[in-house]
Specification:
Blueprint lengths: L18 E2 L3 E5 L5 E10 L3 E5 L9 E6 L8 E12 L7 E9 L3 H11 L2
Antiparallel strand pairs: 1-3, 2-3, 2-5, 3-4, 4-7, 5-6, 6-7
């Protein structure tokens, strides 16, 4: 590889910028009742990454509820599992999963954009 060529391994594949967000994310049923709790690590206008040692199947759709800032009302979105991350070299130890928003309303998108943008 030439000296000035970027290394291809490890290139960022994300479409949207992310911002760290350590908050509780509640998986809800269709009536809005929370039933599973996870913690997020970061958020973008495209999705959210959750810490979890119990992954959901890729393609699973879930109702999510979480607040972007302390004291704010939570936003509610539909997400779909698009990625499961495991510890390097260990197929059994899951560290988290990436969820992509599904049909994100414009008002919620604007709220997330204002949080992510510096």
């Amino acid at each position: 590889m030439a000296k000035n060529e970027p290394e291809k391994r490890g290139l960022e594949k994300r479409i949207y910028p992310r911002r760290t967000l350590r908050t509780q994310v509640i998986f809800e049923d269709e009536s809005g009742e929370g039933f599973i709790y996870f913690y997020s690590t970061d958020v973008s206008i495209g999705g959210v990454f959750l810490e979890s040692d119990v992954p959901l199947k890729i393609g699973t759709r879930v109702f999510l509820s979480f607040a972007l800032r302390e004291g704010e009302s939570p936003i509610r979105v539909i997400g779909r599992v698009v990625r499961v991350e495991r510890e390097a070299g260990d197929a059994l130890n899951v560290v988290g999963m990436g969820l992509q928003y599904v049909d994100l309303p414009a008002s919620i998108r604007a709220t997330i954009e204002s949080y992510v943008s510096p």
